[in-house]
């Protein structure tokens, strides 16, 4: 089944334009296990979460990512077709490159690999001040470092205070403080902007 | 040449006095001293004290420069102190740039400003002014001989110092850039598009359908596409099924979000 067929199947499942034996709204989801997911005790923050990994990709072998953590721990992360991959937007495994940084959440297997549920590739989140705005870019000051925020047409969104998320970036102003979520371009000071939260910080 | 040279002690005294005023009177500035490169030299704990002392030295040099106007006090005393202070300051910036590149310079304002070429250019400008004042040794009251020229030189030099002060960007550079953006079309105005995914996800997360199954979702957004008035968003559940949400695309109505959970007919290898 190719991707388009799959989308068609899922669309008809949720919009109910066709009866599907495999689609049962809420069927397989009994309420009990929803509250039974194992959680780490919040009182022991020193315990390293085994179901989480971060670092930079040093190798890709098949569907296995070799990742060196910032604490130099080596992680092996298995990616499946059920793994969500974010790299500025939800994307696929071929968008992941050696050299990328990532956060991964999943389930630690007995052999030590992490079966990933979600990957966030090159994601950064930081407080900035907008120091200049140009054609397709923002100059941002973050802790005295200049960051170039790249506006990606059709992808970069803005949130002005509590208003709904919008694709309209024309209300951004020089001098305003903002919080950005974006995808860092490895080994540069450039960030492809996903969301700019403007006006959430005083100033 | 005597009049422009005579103006230099005034310029230096003004800049040093402004800088000293911030260091001596602004509690914010002193508390932020821990974030300046000074903290890398004397230690974080002693930084506020050292910062205040630098302000004291600046005030003394400013006074010595102004005292050059009194007939019995040679102008060169203040000028020599200014040369020493500017040289030390250029050295400080160089040290900070090399060994504490992330720190703020803590120069003339409580505002944090990174050390970049402008800070250096300003320090070199002040050093040059001190050297001119020292070499000429003209007492500053001599500038009165040609008041327009004197004021002109002083204004130009002060403007140059302001242009080279990153701390003052918020006062003039940002307003200028804001004005430019107001006069000309906003450079990002043409890029608006109808609906960012983040907007859909925000609506989705506020829906009863999401509350129903949210605890069972294991992945972030797997896939999404638009289908008429709906945007379809998929997640993976803990039972390795796919949770498919249909979210209204162009209206905000979380109650009408629909969900279906689909068990994959055939597992596709990644």
**What is the general shape of chain B?**
elongated
CATH superfamily of the largest domain in chain A: Nucleic acid-binding proteins
Average pLDDT confidence of chain A is 83
Q: What is the chains' assembly state? A: heterodimer
| Percent in strands of chain B | 5-15%
Q: Largest sheet of chain A, if any?
A: 5 strands, mixed, barrel
The separation of the N and C termini of chain B measures 78 Å
Write down the overall geometry of chain A: globular
CATH architecture type of the largest domain in chain A: Beta Barrel
Strands ordered across the widest β-sheet of chain A: 1-2-3-7-6
The tally of domains of chain A stands at 2
Derived from helix and strand composition plus strand pairing, the structural class of chain A reads mainly beta
Q: On the 0-100 scale, what is the average pLDDT of chain B?
A: 87
InterPro entries (chain A): TAT_signal
Organism (chain A): Actinocatenispora rupis
Keywords (chain A): Signal
Protein name (chain A): Cell wall protein
Provide an overview of this structure.
- Chain A: This is Cell wall protein.
- The complex is a heterodimer of chains A (203) and B (270).
- The radius of gyration of chain A is 20 Å and the shape is globular.
- Chain A is mainly β.
- The longest helix of chain A has 13 residues, at 3-15.
- Chain A has 1 helix and 13 strands.
- Chain B has 270 residues and is an alpha+beta fold.
- Chain B folds into 2 domains: 2-183; 197-262.
- Helix content of chain B is 55%, strand content 9%.
- Chain B is built from 10 helices and 4 strands, in the order H-H-H-H-H-H-H-H-H-H-E-E-E-E.
- Chain B has helices spanning 2-25, 27-31, 37-42, 47-67, 75-99, 117-136, 147-163, 169-183, 197-205, 208-213; strands at 223-227, 230-236, 242-248, 258-262.
- Chain B has a 4-stranded antiparallel beta sheet with strand order 1-2-3-4.
- In chain B, helix 4 packs antiparallel against helix 5.
- Chain B is elongated, with a radius of gyration of 31 Å.
- In chain B, 43% of the residues are buried.
- Classes of the chains: A mainly beta (203), B alpha+beta (270).
- Chains A and B meet through helix 1, strand 7, strand 8 and strand 10 of A and helix 8, helix 9, strand 1, strand 2 and strand 3 of B.
